């Protein structure tokens, strides 16, 4: 992981750094506030030795060896008993010994004692007791060494000091340590989260996991848009033509158009690795964007398990694809027009017990061939590719297959497995769409409306046509006339509309591609 990647991880996960920093600072403050203040009194002894038979050098060497031994005497129970005896310290010998720390300095022939206590006057009193009792105790111990004729003396050269301020806790030091520890821990966690994150977030992740290009990165809807919009279905409204989401779908439309050089774009299958990744919303918005460019578009609700297209577009979906495939109705009776721009929808219809068999049937193949003759683009919204095989079955009839993954939700392994399952049936994979990306990750600063300005006044919503007739469901009063009015002169008496075949025998994407990319592309 390079330095730039680490900096990017820190910037993206800044909240982890801040949260960790606040936590460690809060812990340091709590420890400091709850700690009992402690005071220190220090004193230093000079250790001198003399010998009747040795030289001065030998006496110094003897004193150096004795300094380490006297450090043990300072913390011994015998000295502690002398300290508490006859003094009102309120301590036992063991408690007094625990408050004393010895620091020998053999090279300098010095011995330091540090007394730490929660009461400054008691720390000073213990220091004075050490100064009084250590020398006599050492003389007593040295007299027991009959073989030695050396004389040792301990002289207090400093202390005991009188504490005036607490040495512990130290707020500045504790908070400084908490600050540094919080920064180090927060940065480590931010980088670790980036390293351990196996979800799809960038086109590089898509390329590494699937070897496919990223056709577009669809941003999330801005909070103000979600609050002000009249709908919550995820569709790009007519008033949002300058929003990042609308621009992303136009970019998707353009990329699909120019990908027709390698993959035909007349029949497009839209799927995803798992449910909840936005394939239905993507299918609907892509169909709307293609219809706005002047193409005749049919959106087929081919998810016969959990259909959502009809609900998203506000259409009646009780009769549709399933009923056509079993021969109950003709497609001309159940295809509905949505909006004024040439978008037509074939709902799912009755949910069947055998969706895979229906989608792989000869009738489904024949239906797609008929739709090729009547529409410029046919988009099939299919179930997720990993849980069921429906998408792979339908992909056999498609010219292009588009996989939708959700930013920060779909793992790279899931994307890879979905692509592999589609490649098993030689599906013509065109690319991947990253859905639900944050605004800052999609580079949308140049758009004329980034979602933070007030939208234009929306136009009146299109009528909600409902197929009517002998074989279709009956809609509310006035729905069928409205549908026929929206469909134009080609509408049938059933309230649905099916364009006539093109004079050349087959309409393909060339209708839109021959013109070249439009201004909106």
TrEMBL record:
Domain Polysaccharide chain length determinant N-terminal span(s) in chain numbering: 3-83
Protein family: Belongs to the CpsD/CapB family. Belongs to the etk/wzc family.
Region described as Disordered: 219-240, 447-521
Record field: compositional bias (Pro residues): 458-470
Compositionally biased spans, kind Low complexity: 471-488
Localization in the cell: Cell inner membrane
InterPro entries xref list: AAA_dom, Bact_polysacc_biosynth/exp, LPS_length_determ_N, P-loop_NTPase, Wzc-like_C
Protein name: non-specific protein-tyrosine kinase
Keyword entries, A-Z: ATP-binding, Cell inner membrane, Cell membrane, Kinase, Membrane, Nucleotide-binding, Transferase, Transmembrane, Transmembrane helix, Tyrosine-protein kinase
Record domain AAA: where: 265-408
Catalysed reactions, as listed in the record: L-tyrosyl-[protein] + ATP = O-phospho-L-tyrosyl-[protein] + ADP + H(+)
GO molecular function: non-membrane spanning protein tyrosine kinase activity
Catalytic activity, EC: 2.7.10.2
Main subcellular location of this protein, as a coarse class: membrane
Pfam families: AAA_31, Wzz
Entry membrane topology: Multi-pass membrane protein
Native organism taxonomy: Bacteria, Bacillati, Actinomycetota, Actinomycetes, Micrococcales
